[in-house]
Design goal:
It is an enzyme of class 7 (translocase). It catalyses: a polar amino acid(out) + ATP + H2O = a polar amino acid(in) + ADP + phosphate + H(+). This protein has one domain: P-loop containing nucleotide triphosphate hydrolases (Rossmann fold). The protein has 9 helices and 10 strands. It has a 6-stranded mixed β-sheet with strand order 6-7-8-3-9-10, sandwiched between helices. It has a 4-stranded antiparallel β-sheet with strand order 2-1-4-5, covered by helices on one side. β7, α6 and β8 form a beta-alpha-beta unit. The protein is globular.
């Protein structure tokens, strides 16, 4: 981690509540993410993990509380929200690549349109990133010509192309065949080692142990506990976490 004790957290979440109808999905969430920190959010299905992740760049609106990115309160709409989203990368479960554009076009689109980067510079940067995630040989292919693991690595490169302050990854391996999961996790581990600030929702406990600075455990819409990976996996404090780990690590 690169932060100093006096530096303001990159992400500040204060008293956040979210409802879907009568269902209370996020309950009084308080969470800071420091610059350069890798926070991995785990917990049973339906615990609010993905909703929390999507709330950080306002893909989900919140009912109360506040979220600040780099000291700025999350804008509600318009140009300010678009600017925020350009600074916060998002990698989804389902890749969300443009099917009719090549891999290279997918990665260069936002830098050209949003950052006003010239095409030649954007393409050179895109090729660097595609090389970094190991899919440079597929630059001229359409997404449908790639495996799921390759498409997800392109999606990660696309997020990095905007030079974001923060990357959110919402269960990025859950839609992949088992043999493709490790190739994406390897890219994510390298990203974590590079000092990128990351919030990752995942079921991959091995990745959490290897890459996390901090594990946040959620259940029933609340943060139940948070600790270093070593502390959490060897000595969970809550009965809820003990029960969860006994089921998935047995």
């Amino acid at each position: 981690m690169t932060n100093t004790p006096t530096e303001r957290p990159l992400v500040e979440i204060r008293g956040v509540n979210k409802y879907f109808g009568e269902h209370h999905v996020l309950k009084d969430i308080d969470l800071d993410v420091q610059r350069g920190e890798v926070v991995i959010v785990i917990g049973p299905s339906g615990s609010g993990k993905s909703t929390l992740c999507r709330s950080i760049n306002r893909l989900e609106t919140i009912n109360s509380g506040e979220i600040l990115i780099d000291g700025q309160k999350l804008p509600e709409e318009g140009r300010a929200l678009a600017q925020l989203r350009s600074d916060v990368g998002m990698v989804f479960q389902a890749f969300n690549l443009f099917a009719h554009k090549t891999v290279l076009e997918n990665v260069t689109l936002a830098p050209i349109k949003v950052r006003k980067m010239d095409k030649k510079t954007a393409e050179a940067r895109a090729m660097e990133l595609l090389t970094r995630v190991g899919v440079q040989d597929h630059a001229k292919k359409l997404p449908a010509q790639l495996s799921g693991g390759q498409q997800q690595r392109v999606a990660i490169a696309r997020s990095l192309a905007m030079d974001p302050k923060l990357i959110l990854l919402d269960e990025p391996t859950s839609a992949l065949d088992p043999e493709m999961i490790n190739e994406v996790l390897d890219v994510m581990v390298e990203l974590a080692k590079s000092g990128m600030t990351m919030v990752v929702v995942t079921h991959e406990m091995g990745f959490a142990r290897k890459a996390a600075d901090r594990v946040v455990f959620m259940a029933d819409g609340a943060i139940v506990e948070q600790a270093s990976p070593d502390e959490f996996f060897t000595n969970p404090q809550s009965h809820r976490a003990q029960d969860f780990l006994s089921k998935i690590l047995s």
